[in-house]
Amino acid sequence: MLPGTSAPERGVGRRDGLPCVGSLAQVVRPHSTTDPTNGTRWSWMKPRAIHEQDARSRFAGALQSALTLGEVENAFFDVVQEVIPAGGFGLYRLDTDSGGVVSVRAEVGSDFLDDYEEYGRDDDPVLDFVLEQRRPIDSSRVAPVERWTACGARSALGVGGYAHSLEAPVVVSGTFFGTINFARTEAQPGFDDDDLIAARFASEQLSLATERALRFESTGHRASMLEHVLDRVPQAVVVTDLDAQVLYRNRTARDEPWLTVSPDVSGRLGPVDESIAEAMEEFRRDGKRVHTRSLRDQRSGRQVIVKSYRLADNDDAAVTLIFNCGQETVERLPLWDVLSRREQEIAELVSQGLTTKQIAERAYVTENTVKQHLKRVFAKTDVRNRAELIQLIWSSGSRGTGQAGSAAG
Asked: What domains are defined for the chain?
């Protein structure tokens, strides 16, 4: 047994060096001592198990409610004192490759931090153990007393008035992310078995919260990047929920007065609003996936095609694209001479978002016949599925001849 190490009071020690957790009827162990530096008398009492459980519950709850890395850090420093009482706390983020310090936040004196970075970090057996073993350890267990007393980390701690050190790893998705650090003065008791258990709990909860925050911030960054991309798209793009409530509009949609999705002074919806509302109703009521409508602005004479697509069912949302058709009147879907009259009809119905069953009912044929027509349409137009066919129809600049229905379907 290393000097300064005490055997667990209950149960059998675990293989990883942490003691087993005892029963709920833990013994209250009081400590009372006087700080020689300022005469303050410390009364140190280990809380009972039920109190410890409440503290850990508050700690976990605070971390779980945090969204960003900054919020996670704030939650950690707000509550960690209840989980592991100490005189100083630190949170280090380390570079994955070099192990260098990326950032540090600590509630200790600045003099101690400067000295620790100058000569303590490179001679810190507690940190070395945590980096190698990826589990909590304190200064009384990591090395003999003589080794700890002589190391640079102990000297740096002394600058801040500290004598005892405890560190635990923060591991995110299997990668070493940083450490959490605790320090106590000579007047305070050293860290014990219960503190090691609490440190493991704190490090695991902080690791999970950090992973969630990184995902959240990454998602926010991707969403922001996507918004910038969509703002450069020449077509107006409007994202709504299935109740036609606007979730997002790109710059083109925002800059075009008659494309804004809001009622006019009379309370009536504009033509684009009406098209979107009509599409959402069909998506909810009929299960359609695509809705198309051709509109003309009475004031400017501009002709547009408003195309709404329902997104995945679990998203309960839709995206509407508004294509500018210039001065050309578009009353029919673009068609190709390579398609037969029947294939053109089937392609048009597909572009309206109808299912195979709905197309069969509308065209008075069997579902198998619809599937056969679609196979030939796919082969002739060199597309692989309905989505590509719809995209090809509306990106085509040519119009076919033959019978075709209105695009206002």
From this structure: 30-219 (3.30.450.40), 233-330 (3.30.450.20), 334-409 (1.10.10.10)
